Prior knowledge:
The chain has helices at residues 6-14, 154-162, 201-211, 226-238, 258-264, 299-318, 371-375; strands at residues 22-26, 39-40, 50-51, 55-58, 69-76, 90-94, 106-109, 113-116, 119-122, 132-133, 144-146, 167-171, 175-181, 185-186, 197-198, 215-222, 243-247, 268-272, 276-277, 283-287, 290-295, 328-332, 343-352, 358-362, 379-383, 395-400. It has 403 residues and is of the alpha/beta class. A six-stranded mixed sheet has the order 7-4-6-5-9-8, with no helix packed on it. A six-stranded mixed sheet has the order 16-13-17-21-20-18, with helices on both faces. The protein has a five-stranded mixed beta barrel with strand order 22-24-23-25-26. It is elongated, with a radius of gyration of 31 Å.
Amino acid sequence: MALMPVADALAAVLAGAEPLSEETVDLDQAYHRVLARDVAALRTQPPQAMSAMDGYAVRAADAAHVHARLKVVGEVAAGRPFGRMLQPGEAARIFTGGVIPNGADAVVIQEDTVADGDQVTITEAAVKGRHIRPAGVDFHEGAVLLQAGRRLSDRDLSLAASMNHPQLPVRRRPRVALLATGDELVMPGNNPGPGQIVYSNGYALRALARAEGAEAIDLGIAADTLAATTAGIRRGREADADILVTTGGASVGDHDLVKESLEAEGVTMAFWKIAMRPGKPMMHGRLGAMRVIGLPGNPVSSYVCSLLFLVPLLRRLSGLSSIHIPREAALLGRDLAANDLREDYLRARLETRADGSVIATPVTHQDSSLLGYLSATQALVIRPPFAPAATAGSACEILRLPE
């Protein structure tokens, strides 16, 4: 079977993927969710001109000169507007957030005044409009300030509240079920027996899924039998997973049973084996509405494949307007040999020089089992198929790893 190019494999993974259904949630539950529809302001902010400082609301013409003396005729606090028109020669004591009285067009801060009973002397000339927040300076009713496809930040929630929205329409969270396979796997905290290793893949993949706003479901570890693997796949269906992710058992050995189990359960396979390193034995298929991504068992392979394929799929299902991790330009930190037919994703350390240039230095050990090297790196250097040898200082493309 010919190896599928990475771009074609990604297109197959994303084919037919549409944003999940809409639901309405309270603001406190909306953080990091993706907006399903544009959200317009239900009010103008501020609704009226307000003072930006503590001081005195005046007519600028009355306080245009130092030593101008005005009569204080009242007080304006936030939430307690002045009850009448400010007349010539008058001033109103005002506090931050107080509504500017009709007739006033400036605020003189209290540090620029001297109060004496019901009189106030101006020590810094007033300027029309100074220290006043005009009505609508932040936003106007009907303005669309939050667009569909936006992942909501903490600041967005504050804005939505100010727009007078107690709830927001968001996309349902994707449900990702992760099934590990392999007799050799033991959970962290146990002492591995002969030939066994500590299971690690799921922790990174579930964290990656949660960081993308998904709900992650742990289906545990299936033994290397057709019955156990099939039972795990069924648990994914019963959990109403939008995506089933398997790790291990995707290669061609006698104990690699995931592909056989998936097909036995009715999964229609879109591809098996792609022209990339690490991650060649990745597979993808569909089982009804559930999408299946079969990842290699080596931890670096499973992580890199998840970054390249699972993350864009999660973003598409979440309704994000931008789903791809952007590629960036960098300079190689060391020489690289010519590449073969597979697209390479080399783990690399990054350095930013004084001139702003980014140097990406691939680590010397690129084996797909080496988690220590993966943890110590910040990016993947992308090497196209059949790329010629490259020297240190030459241009390259990188994908930054999540922080």
